[in-house]
Amino acid sequence: MKHKLECLLQHAVEALKAQGILDRELTVQINLERARDAQHGDFATNLALLLTKPAKLNPRQLAEKIVAELPLDNLLTKVEIAGPGFINFFINPDSQFQIVRQIHDAGPDFGLSSIGAGKRVQVEFVSANPTGPLHVGHGRGAAYGSAVADLLEAAGFEVEREYYVNDAGRQMDILATSIWLRYLEECGEVLPFPSNGYRGEYVREIAFKLHKKAGNDYRRPAELVQEDIPADEHQGGDKEKHIDALIERAKTLLGAEQYRIVFQAGLDEILEDIKDDLEEFGVTYQHWFSERLLMDDGSVQEALQRLDAAGFLYRQEGATWFASNRLGDEKDRVVVRDNGQTTYFASDIAYHMNKLDRGFDRIVNIWGADHHGYIPRVKAAMQALGADESKLKVLLVQFAVLYRGEERVQMSTRSGEFVTLRQLRNEVGKDACRFFYVMRKSEQHMDFDLKLATSRSNENPVYYVQYAHARVCSVFRQLDEKGRKRDLLLGMDNLNLLTEDHESALLLTLSKYPEILERAAVLYEPHQVIHYLRELANQFHSYYNAHQFLVDDDKLCNARLNLISAVKQVLINGLTLLKINTPETM
RNA sequence: GCGCCCGUAGCUCAGCUGGAUAGAGCGCAGCCCUCCGGAGGCUGAGGCCAGAGGUUCGAAUCCUCUCGGGCGCGCCA
User: Fold this and answer.
1) In the sheet where A407-408 sits, what is the strand order?
2) CB within 8 A of A260, min separation 6: which ones?
3) A311, exposed or middle or buried, with CB in 10 Å at 0-12, 13-18, 19+?
4) CA of A540 and C1' of B16: distance in angstroms?
5) Nearest nucleotide by C1' position to the A291 CA atom
6) How far in angstroms lies nucleotide B56's C1' from the CA of residue A7?
7) Whether A31 CB is under 7 Å from strand B
């Protein structure tokens, strides 16, 4: 409907160009909107206002000329010029009824579009370090990222979801060493735990399993482990030097082979936990991409060579620097440290080179807001590699602050007492969890109220939407109990009986769903779908209270049943897209 | 100090790439089941869109500054 009107307007513009009112070279962006007020019809455009200057006419005169060029179509009952020069379109009400038929015919596919035209988009999200379970902060990225990916897919893009696993680097060594130290405790060795180690309970559990499986194979005497290790922080030393020394000690005492096994045990265990966690949250990936792989297969070296060949690398103070400042970054960045090790950023350059080489039309990265300073350097690297940096879209997700009623829930990663995503899901359930996370615009700081999310009352927006669905189901159960049969065709033939205000409003809202999905996908704004579903549910509940569906008149009854059936279908489509359940009873 | 995000009803937030009279939920004050599920509906009070300039037919929306809140500015990952 919307596209059709846009076409008509485009033709009118061409006609004005032919008449010499508008310059032929002028490109015109048609801006057609849903009218906010029913008095302004169904759609409105500000076209005449925008073209006032190039046409050198006042807006109302210009609007008249545009309207004169619009072919009369039986879709429209009226086109009028209003206010300063808006053109308002009134859609033939009969055509509005057809939305019920369209929804019925399309079923689960209603709302899907092909604007993506099969273009390949990669969406990378969460990508939390596998050094511990996901916490609530990752939850928002997971819910938002998967919703964006699912929306893009619904809009006709070919989507690949990816998780970048940081399985290389110092943090992983700290984890491996932490596990080993806990393992030694399991074996009966007595030794202090480093202040900088991972203290979470999960580390003990992994150590426990390792001990159960391997017995004392990796046991070494505590004296040897401790010998000549520099003091920890609480002993007046440097915690970083302390932990680094312990890592080295673990590597020497265990040897490369055994160290690798302990390391791998931790990585596997945690990654498995993250995968399960996300899967239970309705989040799945096509690829789990290993950082270590990039280092092992020479990709990092290759990326650096390419930067060097392009003249973007130089050496200073023993390190190798990438001249990102020349490409808009606030300063240059180290890619190879003076000790010869490549930095995390070097891996990331190689990773983005790899993404580009895979030929995606668009690359979407979803990051926590704390990484925003990272964007310029990654874009700089893409440019230096000769790539089109506009292919990369970085979406930032702001932090969520947890509340339980008035009280703020404290999170502390160090102590290992942080609230995990799993705990959150167990407390509020998957549906409320996803709904709440996606309900807010991603760049908006949000307060996540656990008390509200768990309340089974009218305060809770999740139940409100689900209840609308359950109510429709209930009406059909009631129909059954009364021994009546639904007559689909009779209802379709009598849609024109749906003339109540509540019914017109619902028909209009239903017809907006495809536009909402498109818009939400293009703008990466899944919260728009939530808002739409709340509005739809609200209108349904109003309708339910105002009118009886199971009336004696078979024609009217079946027309209404078809209408609420369409409501049900759209609720299902929207909620399913967001991976939220649609229970038939609650 | 520099950079990014945010500031809209008492609270939590929408506001359709600049449009017509700024919206919703919660909370508050009332009301509505002889009726398909009251986890619902209806009515009402509540706003200088942080503040000041600017851009134009028109600004909550764009630009500049100020004030407030969050987050970044490592040879960490």
Assistant:
1) A407-408, A400-404, A446-449
2) none
3) exposed
4) 22
5) B77
6) 28
7) yes
CA distances from A527 to A147, A151, A224, A443 (A): 9, 11, 56, 11
Main-chain dihedrals φ then ψ at residue A38, nearest 5 degrees: -60, -25
**Residue A553: CB less than 7 A from any atom in strand B:** no
Distance A585 CA to B40 C1' (A): 15
Gap from A533 CA to B19 C1', Å? 26
Beta bridge partner(s), residue A164: A289
Considering only CA atoms, which of A517, A505, A507 is closest in space to residue A566? A507
Domains and CATH numbers, chain A: 2-91 (3.30.1360.70), 170-270 (no CATH), 461-577 (1.10.730.10)
* Residue whose Cα is closest to the C1' of B4: A372
Q: What is the pLDDT along chain A (586 residues), one digit of tens a residue?
A: 777 788 888 888 888 788 877 777 777 777 788 887 777 888 888 888 877 777 777 778 888 888 888 776 677 788 888 877 888 888 887 888 999 999 999 999 999 999 999 999 999 999 999 999 998 889 999 999 999 999 999 999 999 999 999 999 899 999 999 999 999 999 999 999 998 899 889 999 999 999 999 999 999 999 999 999 999 988 888 888 999 999 999 999 999 999 999 999 999 999 999 999 999 999 999 999 999 999 999 999 999 999 999 999 999 999 999 999 999 898 999 999 999 999 999 999 999 999 999 999 999 999 998 899 999 999 999 999 999 988 999 999 988 888 877 777 776 554 555 688 998 898 888 999 999 999 999 988 888 888 777 776 656 789 999 999 999 999 999 999 999 999 999 999 999 999 999 999 999 999 999 999 999 999 999 999 999 999 999 999 999 999 999 999 999 999 999 999 999 999 999 999 999 999 999 8
